[in-house]
Amino acid sequence: TTLRTDHMQALDTDDFAVVDGPLLTKWELRAARLELEMLRQQGELGTVGQPSEVRRDEVCWLLSSAGDDVKGNDSSSSEEDVEQDGSQCAGGSRGGLNRALSVLRAVAALLQEHEPTRTLVVPRSCMAASYGPDGAHYIAHRDNQGNSRSDRRYFTLVLYLNDPDWDADRDGGALRAYVGADSTDDEGHSAKKIVDVCPKGE
Question: What is the average pLDDT score of the chain?
């Protein structure tokens, strides 16, 4: 996993960056996708208890086999470290999904180098979300509202498991980022620019 200078510059200027792959091999990507689909079929994924007009995805929490932060200190997560939101929790003993979790943790370690004065702790729990073809969505929102007690997230990392040839115009599912919106604007009306990210797996 590599973060280039332009990725860091984008984080500094826009608080947002897209890292193109490949982050997973095609076999790892396929394995992770199939494992998540198996979890869905087994009923491990569920809604998070928010109104359907807010979000209509299904999620579960995957537990990483590693429990250390990027400094090497124990960071076993408690309910205060991540928002469980009433979703189901699944183990991370599956090869493809474990590899995906490892990639996310590796990115966090690189981000720590970019933020040397801030200790980044990586929770053991990672949310896996599935958006179906029936209009599933998540409205514009902020992952961190600035309340350090209720939400400690400094970075949000998203790793897509879709096919590499995914076409957002054809298949939908793009992530819309409202870059540069005012801190009091949770809907993106004041965004300086809008960026749509195609959710293709890489």
Answer: 81
